[in-house]
Amino acid sequence: MAATQVRGVHLVGSVCLPSTEDVFRQSVELLPGRLRRIPDGETQHRQNFTFWQLAVFQAVPQILRKYDATMSTVPVDPVPSDEEIQRAVKSLPELHTGYDVVAIESYQTFTKLRREGVIPKGVKFQVSLPTLPNVLVLVAEPYQAAVEPLYEAALLRDLRKIEQAIPPEDLTIQWDAASEFAMLEGAVWPHFKPWFSPVREHLDQQLARLTNAVSPQVEMGVHLCYGDLGHRHFFEPKDMGLLVDVANTLKKNTQRPITYFHMPVPKERDDAAYFAPLKNLELGSTELYLGVVHAGDEEGTRRRIATASQLVKDFSIGTECGMGRTPPEDFASIMSISSAVSSPLSASDANGSLDGLANGSSKN
């Protein structure tokens, strides 16, 4: 098989390293010239995706979902009345997600390392934020509908603080959308059971509100995900059809540029059938990152790249999901494979997104 190479690598978000500085240093060292943007790795208490958001609701613990020893949802019993729900939710103080605090703190480390020459000029600081269902699944079912608008308002307040503190030319906002696909595929209910209807319409509108809330002067990407709890998807997709459909709908509903989409590729899927829906993906100027890289599988990674190349000609690579819970030996393998199967970005690759924003590029 002829080797197929792509330019550039995308880091999805979390990284299994001790500190933000470790993430920045090792990323640029192990992926030289391949990164358009770098996340802070969501280290320490943030490595388990949104579970650290439980603290946001600690003032009223009864609204949080309860789990048994097997991590299965424990039904709320007795079910609270509407009046009791409203009373509990009204007793919450103004919510603060904390995403602004950690982003601004990590950005200080980012700029320090850039001044030292560790992080190359032109590389952006990536801030990953969860879409609403990824946090609201932690809330007990009777309270989800009432908490939803409060958490959305809090998340957007903290987005504004991030945008005010970090210059737009340095910043990328990435929305992480995972629980949406469990809801749409009917997987792992009741944990991911929607509290709204019609499900698809609600999710499409909600996701568009988030993407449209990001300043048009700031890069914005969307990570579409089938989960990684216990290194397994919550549902094995038959192909990329739903991913492509959600992406196309979001493009139509978003009134600002979407800089990139990231989509997962299961390790065992190097067949054309999985990638076939990509022929319907309406990218325009949007970058595409495919999560083809899997630990210990350089040959398979190259096969997945080669198959994807038959459907879409311009894409870059990454892992399926974040690496917050990845074993250290797998992290080393992933970074080695990512470097081996990719080539460095050209100057135009590295600057293209910024140029588009600076020139006031059209919608998507």
Supply the key terms.
TIM Barrel; eight-stranded parallel beta sheet; 12 strands; 38% helix; disordered C terminus
Walk me through this protein's architecture.
InterPro entries: UROD/MetE-like_sf (IPR038071). Residues 344-364 are annotated as: Disordered. The chain has one domain: Alpha-Beta Barrel (TIM Barrel). It has helices at residues 20-30, 82-90, 99-115, 133-136, 144-165, 179-185, 199-213, 241-253, 272-275, 298-309, 328-340, 347-358; strands spanning 6-7, 9-10, 37-39, 66-67, 73-74, 124-130, 171-177, 219-224, 260-264, 287-293, 316-319, 342-343. The radius of gyration is 20 Å and the shape is globular. 38% of the residues lie in helices and 13% in strands. Helix 10 (298-309) links the parallel strand 10 (287-293) and strand 11. It contains twelve helices and twelve strands. The chain has 364 residues and is α/β, with parallel strands linked by helices. The strands form three sheets. The chain has an eight-stranded parallel beta sheet. The chain starts with 5 loop residues before the first strand and ends in a 6-residue tail after the last helix.
